[in-house]
Specification:
Elements lengths: L16 H13 L4 E8 L9 H11 L7 H10 L6 H8 L7 E5 L5 E8 H4 L3 H16 L7 H17 L3 E4 L8 H17 L5 E5 L2 H6 L3 E2 L5 H11 L4 H13 L5 E3 L5 H7 L2 H6 L2 E4 L4 H14 L8 E4 L5 H11 L4 E6 L1 H4 L10 E9 L8 E2 L14 H10 L5
Parallel strand pairs: 4-5, 4-10, 5-6, 7-8, 8-9, 9-10
Antiparallel strand pairs: 1-3, 1-11, 2-3, 11-12
Helix pairs in contact: 1-11, 2-6, 7-8, 10-11
Length: 405
């Protein structure tokens, strides 16, 4: 490990678009809400000695990262759905390390607790995960296994296969990337491939705003489970999807119309997905469960509302690689307008390196700082048993929604 660790995040927009669009919606609708998040390593990894101390230094270094006029200019040009008042907020935004508490136990397991105003702390998730992922490889020595020249050709070939198959796809890989350089290489390779390849597929862009700006691409993204989870904590899970759709429409008025439906499973979402919102939203995103089964439910729902599913976009983002995406495309292209957001397989697919299986999830919320208590929340999914949150809270939500474990 080097004596002086480089700063991993140095650009304010080295982040996913959805954190910005979500932040804007939060300010617009829940400006006083307070939240708690927690870090989850699904593999229960042991981190190198001193990892927590270096992570604290990296988080402290975020306080020096501010948005530039160039970044604002790019977002105004490529993200016209974001109201201009939001950029005034971003110009004054400063990260504060006090929002994050980092611990590492005697065995080396890592824990993070995040608490604060929702409109502030919402901007931490992606940056923290990217830092933890890259820092792990630096401190374990795995960074030496990363050959970016070789990875350029590997990424170019992946893009070529998907474009040749007719797939419309984008990079969603910021959170668990092997490094900043790895994601830079992926976006450059896929952008080059798409511009050279005349086949029917298309690399549409990246979720990372900085790399979209660097390579003159479209920033891709809409929303996350976090919005529905917070609303469920404040008001209950039965109508959380409906309230989230209404909230999103209040801020974006029909733009950014891809809804992430699986926070509490298909059944409750389907009851909330009325004809007006089915027509307003451009489509739905599949992020858990069996991709084909979920698509069939979506198609059936649209047809039951008198809507031709072939006019609707379905975005697939559930643990995809190139082979799975092409297989899904061959089936889905007859039923809808499929597209694919691929993360870890794009930005962390190196020989002899194990991608981090890490997430940060919202676990509690209160609608105003004047409340002296939080409401617990959790995330379910269409993956049976893959639930995030306190087990007692998960059971309570499942009982409320008449779900069985």
């Amino acid at each position: 490990m080097p004596n002086i660790m480089r700063q991993i995040i140095t650009h304010f927009t080295d982040d996913d678009l959805y954190k910005f669009t979500m932040c804007c919606a939060v300010i617009d609708n829940y400006p006083r809400a307070q939240v708690k998040y927690t870090f989850i390593d699904r593999n229960n990894s042991v981190y190198p000695e001193g990892f927590a101390d270096e992570l604290r230094r990296q988080i402290k270094a975020l306080e020096s990262v501010v948005i530039t006029d160039e970044e604002i200019g790019f977002m105004k040009l490529r993200c016209p759905y974001i109201p201009f008042w939001f950029y005034t907020f971003l110009k004054g935004f400063r990260y504060k390390s006090e929002w994050v508490k980092v611990r590492q136990d005697a065995e080396g397991h890592l824990a993070l607790d995040i608490e604060g105003c929702w409109s502030d702390t919402i901007m931490l998730e992606v940056k923290l995960l990217a830092i933890i992922s890259e820092l792990y490889y630096i401190m374990t020595g795995d960074e030496a296994k990363i050959d970016l020249e070789k990875y350029y050709h590997k990424s170019f070939a992946k893009a070529g296969r998907m474009i040749d198959a007719g797939c419309v796809f984008s990079d969603f890989g910021t959170r668990r990337r092997a490094s900043f350089g790895a994601q830079d290489t992926v976006v450059r390779a896929m952008s080059d491939c798409s511009r050279q390849n005349t086949a029917p597929g298309l690399f549409t862009g990246t979720s990372n705003i900085y790399f979209a700006m660097k390579y003159d691409l479209l920033p891709i993204g809409t929303m996350a489970h976090e919005l529905i989870c917070a609303i469920a904590g404040m008001y209950g899970p039965q109508m959380a999807n409906y309230i989230a759709m209404k909230t999103w429409a209040t801020t974006y008025r029909g733009a950014l119309g891809t809804f992430l439906f699986d926070t509490y499973g298909w059944d409750i979402f389907s009851l909330n997905f009325s004809e007006d919102y089915a027509n307003m939203f451009k489509g739905l995103r599949v992020d858990s469960g069996d991709n084909i089964n979920e698509l069939n439910k979506i198609v059936e729902k649209y047809r039951s509302l008198g809507i031709d599913p072939r006019t609707k976009q379905v975005v697939f983002s559930n643990a995809l690689d190139v082979d799975r995406a092409i297989k899904i495309h061959d089936y889905a292209s007859k039923l809808c307008q499929p597209s694919f957001g691929i993360g870890t397989h794009f930005t962390n697919d190196f020989d002899d390196i194990t991608p981090r299986n890490i997430v940060i999830k919202l676990i509690a919320v209160k609608i105003t700082e004047s409340w002296d208590f939080y409401n617990d929340t959790c995330k379910l999914s269409e993956d049976e048993g893959k639930y995030t949150g306190n087990p007692e809270v998960v059971r309570r939500f499942m009982q409320t929604l008449h779900l069985t474990e």
